[in-house]
Amino acid sequence: MYKEYGENSCRTYDIKFGDKSFKYHLYNDFENFTERLFDLDDIDSFVILSDENIGRIYGRSIVNRIRKNYRCELIIFDCTEKSKNLTVLQELIEKVISLKATRRTCIIGLGGGICGNMAGMVAALLFRGIKFIHIPTSLMAISDSVLSLKQAINSEYGKNLIGVFHTPEMVITSTQFLKSLPKKEIISGLCETIKNALTILPESIEPLTGMLNDDCRYTWDNYRYFIEMSIKAKTQVMKNDAFEKKGALILEYGHTIGHAIELADAGAITHGEAIGLGMLCAAEISHMLGHLSEKDVKIHRTLLEKAGAPTVIAENINPDTIVSILKYDNKRGYTPVEEGTVYMVLLDTIGKTFNDSLLTAVPMELVRQAINRMYRE
Fold it and tell me: Which region is the signal sequence (predicted)?
């Protein structure tokens, strides 16, 4: 699955999605962290995009290392769901151009999933596409968002409705980034790990259950397990579906309602926490339709509770707002639209979906019932 270099200092994974491929370098430290950047051809400069916190902690150090070999600049921007829009994207592109970027400039996204998406969009659009690299620093980004070709921003109507497919040159990260990660962000990343277990790797549920704890006390071996599990899940379903239109749609489990909850809460809830709630809603809907057993629904709840994730929707989130956002879900169009329904990925049993198309038309009234139940469970 991977090649190991040095004394456990770096593990390198070959990520292949269809005919697209890139290297994923997972370090245990920062000592030789930037050496992989210099493997690239036809690059004469770098521009790093980062948020204020990560940029302050790591940005300047990485810039100084790169400047030993190349010209490098650092751009700090407000990295939130609210700023993940066309206006901020244009501002970033103009800023990169002002720094004398050329077609031989490589963009680096240093931070969490939002930062990676913005960096990917800048690289995809500037000069009709230039090289970019992910340096993810959150568990969510390290184990989920960078393992994709999708780069996207939000519309006022919904999450990730504006985007492109653009392949990174490589991913470089380190488990050391997780050392200072807030508990809430660790939980967020684990919710996607749980999703992978429920949908693709049910055999990992037992060991995962044994590792999860609501204190978020994990060893480096635990983190490597979470990361490698996610790499295995993603490559398994995307090896013949790089653009996530067929079998890889399973990765959208929990995302239909989860994205709506995330937007309805205006960023107060993390992406992973919202997806966790979305999975519980999806499990409840499947159970109401006579498919997922009570035991399987309980497995959802047990895993999320052990990880410390919320299992009820906050009272401040209006259920009507959630339902309204659902109407603009980014999976619309994969199947013919049926009035009064929303298409969702639903499980028949743990590790098995309803049908080969993966998407099931669910009456909006049933969706509303499931959402309402999530306020009082």
Answer: none
Find, among 339, 334, 341, 348, the residue nearest to 282 by Cα: 348
| 191 falls within a domain | no
Distances (CA, A) of 162 to 134, 157, 240, 252: 20, 11, 24, 17
Distance CA(205)–CA(198), nearest Å, equals 7
First to last CA, the chain: 41
Question: Are residues 114 and 214 part of one domain?
Answer: no
Which residues span the domain enclosing 129? 2-180
Q: Kind and range of the H or E element at 50?
A: strand 45-50
On whether both 30 and 139 belong to a single domain, the answer is yes
| Tokens representing residue 336 in the block | 């013919």
Does residue 186 lie in a domain region?
no
pTM of the model: 0.92
Same domain? For 340 and 269 the reply is yes
**Residues 97 and 210 occupy one common structural domain:** no
d(CA 8, CA 352): 36
Number of domains in the chain: 2
Catalytic residue annotation: 150, 252
Indicate whether 86 belongs to any domain: yes
What separation in angstroms does the CA of 320 have from each of 235, 258, 264, 275, 364? 37, 14, 9, 18, 11
* 80 plus 220 within the same structural domain: no
Specify the CATH number for the domain of residue 322: 1.20.1090.10
